[in-house]
Amino acid sequence: MKIFAVVFGALFSLACAQFPGGRILESPDVALCATRVIHERTPDGKGYMFSWREPSLRGVEEDWLGGRNYCRKRCMDLVSLETSVENEWIKQRIVKDKVKYIWTSGRLCDFKGCERADLQPISINGWFWTAVLQKLAPTTDRRQNDWSSSGGINKPQPDNREAQQGGATENCLAVLNNFYKDGVNWHDVACHHRKPFVCEENEDLLKYIRYSHPQVKI
Ligand SMILES: [Ca+2]
Ligand SMILES: [Ca+2]
To answer: Which of 34, 107, 174, 206 could be stapled to 189 by a disulfide with Cβ–Cβ 3.0 to 4.6 Å?
Structure first.
């Protein structure tokens, strides 16, 4: 099994810098955590929710932060693909359910507070799984990640294509299902696009709610 992440270090205090327009990263809600929907569990017991399988989300797609907040209110977060096993498990479900693409928790650390030396250059060393605060391997280490070898301008990902064409920076990580006839793999995409998403149970949020509401079964 390949590992797609290394310890990143705390960035909690920097949360605001990532979210323009006054939007915030939302806190878990005890009632929503207690009634969270789990569609499937991996053998280690971790629960996942697939937005397209949830009747109340039929036709709903979210931008990256909207996806994170939907999940976080339920003690989950956008999926983090820290290992090749989990990556393949998620990709199998995207293919089986014929979903075009999904959001993950992957994000480029390109905001205030990302000046740390080990994150430079940002385009290579600046990607991390926000949900678990773990850094991805350098984008140049193609064996330790699943970035596509192609994309909209036939360049290996991440290519920041949209910004190069005069649009927004591509600083969020989506899994695309053969969208560019390039297989099922990772792409950097501008975070404002709306997509289906996968929530993964988040140990830190579950612990927080269990501790603060010991009388509630979470
Ligand atoms: Ca994970
Ligand atoms: Ca791209």
So the answer is: 174
